[in-house]
Amino acid sequence: MYTDTIADFLTRIRNALSAGHRVVKIPSSKFKKEITKILFNQGYISNYRFENSDYPQIKIALKYDSLTHSPVIRSIKRISRPGLRKYSSCNKLPRILNGLGIAIISTSSGIMTEKTARKKTLGGEIICHVY
Fold first, then answer.
1. Do 122 and 115 meet the contact criterion of CB atoms below 8 Å apart?
2. Residue span of the signal peptide, if any (predicted)?
3. How far, in Å, CA of 94 to CA of 114, rounded?
């Protein structure tokens, strides 16, 4: 039983990248599916698939640089956690690496990047930083 399933999700991706794996399987939830879609749309993972077997899983194909074989995701870090939630208004949303990275935000209109939340003038809970 996990207390923080999002931290487990991010840790599985981080561990698979450091081990050089091409694919990682993660237990699925609606929240994790939305984060996976954002990572794919922003170009941090090469592909994903939602599998519904005995228990639902997300199968993520990780992305590596073709020349240096280094992972595209250099850092993926959990910000808000169950013991200490981090919220931000639309004016104070973080800018990751001066706009080169993304922050994933949970807003009242769903899960989105900080750039999208800034355009829609929405604040919310800062889930993680990716660059």
1. no
2. none
3. 7
